[in-house]
Amino acid sequence: MANINFTKRDSFGSKFGIIAATAGSAVGLGNIWRFPYVAGENGGGAFVLIYLGFVFMIGVPVMLSEFTIGRRAKQNAFGSFKTLAPGKPWYLVGLMGIVAAFLILAFYSTIAGWTLEYILQSLTNSFSGKNSAELKQSFETFQSGTFRPILWQIIFMGLTGWIVFSGIKNGIEKYTKILMPLLFALIVVMCIRAVTLPGAMKGLEFLFKPDFSKITWGVVLEALGQAAFSLSIGMGTLITYGSYFNKNTNLATTAVQVSMADTFIAILAGVMIFPAVFAFNLKPDEGFGLVFIVLPNIFEQMAGGYIFSIIFFILLAVAALTSTISVLEVVVAYFVEELKISRKKATVIGSVAISALGILCTLSFGNLGDLKIFNRTIFGVFNDLTANIFLPVGAFLIVIFLGWFLGKKIITDELSNEGTLRIKLLGVFLFIIKFIAPIAIALVFLNSVGIVNFS
Ligand code: PHE
């Protein structure tokens, strides 16, 4: 059944708005927290090189596929598949994306809430005078609490809901156009501070000097997984945003620009974090604690640490916010268009339902810590289920849909804006979405669920 809707759909108003919103979705905790940590654990430079290869070989084509589906159908992720493949079960891919959005936002908002607590701690100068054991202790006490982390999570979801509620042009676009340049400015300031620390070279060497002896199949697949998560591909976020692009948007250049921006910010995050880690003789593979334990430790010791800690945690919160709105929009667009409820109602129901799920994730660091499913906490299950299963399977099915089902005519129409643009590299794109991307993604998926383990 075609989903024809005669009421005017909201859309982005400008080219810069499209880039800001889409790059805002991609750039998030995945870049500033996860990228440096995963790179840190997988040998630094060589991992970064392989990651770059995957972003452009696989990430850009999958992103372009999502834009194509979304702008063609002009519907939410579920409705897009229903419109383009009437009577076929492809809408299940969209549905899987909606479910993934619920689960991702539930655990993402836990960490996003922590960034607000850390802004407050920075403002009140609470890292001052504490050694690393005390900083670790204070993080763990906060994290395992009940009232505070839940309150921050709800505040964060409230902010997210408020922006989404205001719509595409007057909400998402308006705020990301301010927040993204701010994010960029803050990260540049932080990078300048980091590279001017004594001993910074060691950190930069770690990040940029490839040591290929560290590369195993496991590392290669880890790089592909990081690329997918960081680019927001595989769950319909970019189908949904693509559906708000206008008919003159050049999909291919947008995909390249957004991927470049995302990658650039991830590299800058590395440049900001590793010199500081090495300058203060800390470990680059601290993982989750890197941001909430190691960085306060660094700020405590460095000149100007008070100001830089405030800047850093605001940066982290802003990056998270421009990502959480894109995930909530997937759910809200679905509610509005498929369940025919008002945007206001959809936003309230979506935010409240996700917050309720999110509270379980937050409590799994404290009161619900003993509740284990598949040997993981609730947070761990949501995290692993989405990153390791939903996103790879979603990305795989999306390229299969485009490469083997949608047909060359629709793809060519979309990529050329109905013949007004000259398309370059069409053959390469088709070859990648038909063969290279599905095979590579299948390898990541099989590895991450442990069916095959190459490492
Ligand atoms: N790309 C975001 C980040 O790096 C996370 C995200 C994943 C957002 C999937 C939307 C969809 O933090």
Plain-language structure description:
With 455 residues, the chain is mostly helical. The chain has one domain: Amino acid/polyamine transporter I, CATH 1.20.1740.10. It contains 18 helices and no strands. It has helices spanning 15-26, 29-41, 45-73, 77-84, 91-123, 132-143, 147-165, 168-195, 200-208, 217-230, 237-242, 251-279, 289-301, 305-338, 343-363, 378-406, 408-415, 426-448. It binds phenylalanine.
Could you say what the CATH topology is called?
Amino acid/polyamine transporter I
Name the poorly predicted regions.
1-6
Name every ligand kind in the structure: phenylalanine
* CATH architecture type: Up-down Bundle
In total, the number of domains comes to 1
**Portion in helices:** over 70%
**Biggest beta sheet attributes:** none
Annotated CATH homologous superfamily: Amino acid/polyamine transporter I
Order of helices and strands: HHHHHHHHHHHHHHHHHH
Estimated structural class:
mainly alpha
With helices defined by DSSP (H or I, 4 residues minimum), what is the helix count?
18
User: What's the CATH class, please?
Assistant: Mainly Alpha
How many whole angstroms does the radius of gyration measure?
21 Å
- State the end-to-end CA separation: 46 Å
β-sheet strand percentage: under 5%
Overall pLDDT confidence: 90
By DSSP, the count of extended strands is 0
Gross morphology: globular
